[in-house]
Amino acid sequence: MTRTGFVTHPDCELHFAGPSHPERPERLVAIVERFASSGLLDELAEHTARPAAASVLARVHTADHIRAVELACLRGRTMLDDGDTYVCAESQRAALLAAGGVVDAVERVVRGEWNNAFVAVRPPGHHAEETHAMGFCLFNNVAIAARHLREQLGLARVAIVDWDVHHGNGTQHTFERDASVFYASLHQYPHYPGTGGSRERGLGEGEGATLNLPQPARSGDSEWLADFEHVLVPALDDFAPEFVLISAGFDAHRDDPLSATRVSEQGFREMTRRLLEVAQRPSRGRIVSVLEGGYDLASLCNSAQAHVEELITYGGSLPQ
Ligand code: ZN
Fold first, then answer.
1. In the chain, what is the straight-line distance between the N-terminal and C-terminal CA atoms, in Å?
2. Distances in Å between the alpha carbon of 218 and those of 81, 151, 261?
């Protein structure tokens, strides 16, 4: 019996930002096709995402922001308030499914139906702030799931590991004063969105629960894995999360057009493996990984495949 879930929804392909926009529906189509052609799909428990309720979104976002997204789609607007975040009539549905898919996945893992899961949805989430859309992101899918784990499912400590090449400003800001959610990010720096310096370590009671590991342009597997091993893994060991969420962007890949870093498929495989190992004791291997960026279709598929193969290998090896 498979113990790794795979959550997606075909309507996440309806969000369309224009023919030349890198965050395009083909990203999801390609991942699903790759999982099917490689036989990976047969090893996964596939589940169709359901839309998130407004009350679930409201754990992170203001009512004004939730309404603004709805109205922009209803009124046929093509752009939200930030310069690169486009919407179409179906974007709200896609965004509700994206957030809902992550919430579904964490519920199933907490219930013990799955050991871990990969959620392939779009639009992505980690740039979305409490009050506004930003950087291709409408709602902050991973932040919403972390709040759901804390407030609805009663977990005491949740960790978010974000290896998208861009810093997850929205996620950091959501939790920077919250000692119960540990946010760690590896990202190219300096780079969009400009946040994520190593001195940003959280605020007030949350000081120390934010860990930024900025990486220079041209850094690759050896630099990313060294920080992973020597800084991130010990910090996670100290924090002892009950659940680990991954903001799994694959745009740090050397072939990605939106970055200058040189991570390989093997690098993503090794980061996944290391995270599965470190999450074993405190979290009992409970991991939900959520797609963020990744804009070169071939390297996106190769990286997502390597990532999910590790989730399956580890998920299947755990006691049931
Ligand atoms: Zn990114």
1. 9
2. 32, 40, 5
User: Which tens digits make up the pLDDT trace of 227-254?
Assistant: 999 999 999 999 999 999 999 999 999 9
Q: Ligand 1 centre and the CA of 319: distance in Å?
A: 35
Q: How far is the CA of 113 from the centre of ligand 1 (A)?
A: 30
Residue 82 pLDDT grade (very low, low, confident, very high; cuts 50, 70, 90): low
DSSP classification of residue 183: E
Compute the distance between CA of residue 130 and CA of residue 123 in angstroms, rounded to an integer. 16
Reference 252, options 167, 130, 181; nearest CA is 167
Residue type, 309: E
* One-letter identity of residue 250: F
β-strand partners of 291: 248
Ligand 1 mean position to 248 CA, how many Å?
A: 9
Q: How far is CA 174 from the centre of its chain?
A: 14
Q: How far apart are CA 29 and CA 35, in angstroms?
A: 10
> What percentage of residues in the chain have a pLDDT greater than 70?
97
111 CA distance to ligand 1 middle (Å): 31
What the block records as the tokens of 293 is 């960026």
Token pair 């399956």: residue: 312
**CA 93 – ligand 1 centroid, Å:** 22
CA separation for the pair 294, 105 (Å, rounded):
21
Q: Which residues are catalytic?
A: 127
Q: For the whole model, what pTM was predicted?
A: 0.97
User: For the domain 4-315, what is the CATH superfamily, name and number?
Assistant: Histone deacetylase domain (3.40.800.20)
Radius of gyration, CA atoms only, the chain: 18
Task: Measure the CA–CA gap between 268 and 177, rounded to whole angstroms.
Answer: 29
119 to each of 145, 197, 306, how far by Cα in Å? 12, 28, 15
Contact at 8 Å (CB) between 133 and 82?
yes
Q: Pull the structure tokens for residue 142.
A: 């991973």
DSSP 3-state of 276:
helix
- At 320, the pLDDT band (50, 70, 90 cuts) reads very low
